[in-house]
């Protein structure tokens, strides 16, 4: 079998799908994208074409190394996302060619069902209690929300109190019938992260995500010494070579590599194994589309330390497109009592509605995250 063609489709809300065709009529789908930089990743995907066209798609390990090492310069959000989507599509082809789901090719299931959670509250957390009530009816019992809006490097007790009051209200409304993680989203610097973690501790969140930005990863170990809340991070780390530093330094209880940003299934499986060796849990980042989610689930179902899976149904970013809009086998993504079953179909387990993808790609918006500024006019982390 030989790779014949790579086709990319940018789509609402902020996704990109990749289709890899072969000369035997089997095609695979991947989702290479960095939110807000879809065109850059698209260019990177097509720059890999000379390394892929005419090659045997079953040699995923070799093609991965060719893409990673073959170009001299490596790593980073754009290149690793391009590799990620290509890798997903190659696994999809392999599974379809062999008539088996990818998790079977990786050694088989380590669990019967995977815990998933839902976002609530949007960019500037609001109406969280109403949203949780609604989502509980849809089968969710675990949630994640942003922890704060803009926060200065040193900020007021008033702002901390506002953020903590919102969390207190949730615990008051639902007790411990629900679980939730709190995403600091890199909005908070190290000085205020310490203050916030201390103030939030009585409400016992499942985890705090990106307590500080990944570029301050040396801070995680120090923060962890000051709090019993498990700390999570990893959506802005792109390879095992970046993750190895945080494993060595300690501090994280959960790593959250993104299957569409960190080199795909091939790389994230290795990151998951490294995490297991450090007794660190895995919770893949996935605010993206159905192919990215399906790729995450392949790794979750073969990784003993996978504890939680993010997914984007109803997420605040999904303007103009929903998780299952381009999926024909919607029933396979059914969530019951907060769990999803292994996707039963060969490959990644997603049957893509190609006609709809082609049609929607004609009017793809260029999504960008908002640019926030502090009250004094300086740029704030979003
Ligand atoms: Mg996050």
From TrEMBL:
Binding site for Mg(2+): 183, 209, 235
Reaction(s) catalysed by this chain's protein: D-galactonate = 2-dehydro-3-deoxy-D-galactonate + H2O
Cofactor(s) in the UniProt record: Mg(2+)
Domain of life: Bacteria
Pathway involvement of the protein, from the record: Carbohydrate acid metabolism; D-galactonate degradation; D-glyceraldehyde 3-phosphate and pyruvate from D-galactonate: step 1/3
Catalytic center residues: 185 (proton donor/acceptor), 285 (proton donor/acceptor)
EC code: 4.2.1.6
Residue(s) at site: Increases basicity of active site His: 258
Site (Transition state stabilizer) location in chain: 310
Lyase found in the keyword field: yes
EC top class named in words: lyase
Main function: Catalyzes the dehydration of D-galactonate to 2-keto-3-deoxy-D-galactonate.
Similarity comment text for this entry: Belongs to the mandelate racemase/muconate lactonizing enzyme family. GalD subfamily.
Protein name: D-galactonate dehydratase
Species, as recorded: Roseateles puraquae
Lineage of the species this protein comes from: Bacteria, Pseudomonadati, Pseudomonadota, Betaproteobacteria, Burkholderiales
Gene name of the encoded protein: dgoD
């Amino acid at each position: 079998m030989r790779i014949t063609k790579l086709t990319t489709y940018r789509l609402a809300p902020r996704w990109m799908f990749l289709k890899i065709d072969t000369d035997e009529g089997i095609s695979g789908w991947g989702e290479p994208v960095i939110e807000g930089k879809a065109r850059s990743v698209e260019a990177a995907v097509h720059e890999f074409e000379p390394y892929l066209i005419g090659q045997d798609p079953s040699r995923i390990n070799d093609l991965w190394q060719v893409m990673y090492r073959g170009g001299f310069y490596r790593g980073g959000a754009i290149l690793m996302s391009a590799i990620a989507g290509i890798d997903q599509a190659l696994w999809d082809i392999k599974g379809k060619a062999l008539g088996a789901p990818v998790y079977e090719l990786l050694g088989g299931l380590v669990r019967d069902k995977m815990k998933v959670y839902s976002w609530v509250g949007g960019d500037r957390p609001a109406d969280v209690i109403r949203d949780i009530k609604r989502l509980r009816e849809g089968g969710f019992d675990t949630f994640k929300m942003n922890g704060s809006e803009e926060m200065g490097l040193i900020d007021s007790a008033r702002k901390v109190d506002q953020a903590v009051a919102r969390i207190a209200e949730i615990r008051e409304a639902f007790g411990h019938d629900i679980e939730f993680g709190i995403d600091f989203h890199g909005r908070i610097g190290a000085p205020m992260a310490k203050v916030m973690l201390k103030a939030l501790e009585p409400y016992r969140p499942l985890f705090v995500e990106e307590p500080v930005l990944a570029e301050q990863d040396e801070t995680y170990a120090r923060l962890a010494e000051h709090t019993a809340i498990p700390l999570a991070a990893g959506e802005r780390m792109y390879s095992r070579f970046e993750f190895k530093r945080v494993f060595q330094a300690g501090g994280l209880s959960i790593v959250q590599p993104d299957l569409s940003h960190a080199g795909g299934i091939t790389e994230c499986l290795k990151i998951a194994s490294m995490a297991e060796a450090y007794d660190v849990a895995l919770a893949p980042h996935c605010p993206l589309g159905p192919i990215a989610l399906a790729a995450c689930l392949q790794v979750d179902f073969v990784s003993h330390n996978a504890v939680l899976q993010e997914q984007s149904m109803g997420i605040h970013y999904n303007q103009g497109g929903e998780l299952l809009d381009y999926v024909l086998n919607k029933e396979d993504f059914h969530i019951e009592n907060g769990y999803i079953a292994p996707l039963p179909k060969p490959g990644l387990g997603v049957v893509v509605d190609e006609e709809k993808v082609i049609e929607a790609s004609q009017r793809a918006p260029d999504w960008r995250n908002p640019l926030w500024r502090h009250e004094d006019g300086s740029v704030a982390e979003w």
